[in-house]
Design brief:
Length: 165
């Protein structure tokens, strides 16, 4: 059965109208989905972070940094530390360390994004140390951490894993 010429004409015109309307609707739906995904993912309710002992090299020796578990207090994560210097044991020190990680950065970390952090340390002689670093997540609860600690005129760089608890 042959289609009437009117229907053929209506089909061509209809395609010219329907296709752009369909494309606009599709773009609108995709935009809504992207907006919904962009809504902030809340940070998991972790209150402790463990970091195993980390080691770095210095001129003719090494430094091992051992920390207690970091405990969360708002945006601050605090722990005690011990730095052992080999072979110069008398250069070793103990103290407290605090890093600041705002809630939006914790949410970014939970989404798998790398974050930067900063903080301070105070050794047993009450000498301040500047702390900076980067956390690169492997999943929502663990990843790799790079910590830089300014000690007098030297910057010690430690790399290791971390795990939220």
């Amino acid at each position: 059965m042959r289609a009437l010429p009117y229907f053929r004409f209506a089909g061509a015109v209809g395609r010219r109208i329907v296709r752009p309307v369909f494309a606009r609707i599709l773009i609108l739906v995709l935009g809504l989905v992207a907006t919904a995904r962009a809504v902030e993912t809340p940070a998991p309710a972790f209150d402790r972070v463990t970091v195993p002992a980390m080691k770095t090299s210095i001129y003719v020796g090494s430094v091992t940094l051992t920390t207690s578990a970091f405990a969360r207090d708002g945006e601050a994560w605090s722990a005690t530390y011990e730095a052992k210097v080999f072979p110069w044991f008398f250069w070793g020190e103990t103290g407290s360390i605090t890093i600041r990680v705002p809630e939006p950065d914790l949410a970014r970390l939970a989404r798998g994004e790398t974050i930067e952090f900063a903080g301070d340390a105070l050794n047993h002689k009450q000498k301040p140390r500047k702390v900076t670093g980067r956390a690169q997540p492997a999943d929502a609860a663990a990843g790799r951490i790079k910590v830089r600690i300014a000690v007098d005129d030297v910057e010690l760089i430690f790399n290791g894993p971390y795990r939220f608890q």
